[in-house]
Amino acid sequence: MTKPEADALKKMAGRMRLAALDMALGAGRHGAHLGPALSCMEIMATLYGRLLRLDPKNPAWPERDRLLVSKAHCVLALYTALAEAGFLKPEELAGFEKSGSDLAGHPTWAPAQGLEYAGGSLGQALGVGLGRALAAKGRGQGHRIFVLLGDGELNEGSNWEAFMAAAHFRLDNLTAVIDKNQLQYDGSTEEVMALGDLGAKLRAFGWETREADGHEPGELIEALEPPPSADRPLAVIAKTIKGKGVSFMENVREWHHAVLSPAQHEQAAREVREAAGL
Question: pTM, whole model, 2 decimals?
Answer without folding.
Answer: 0.96
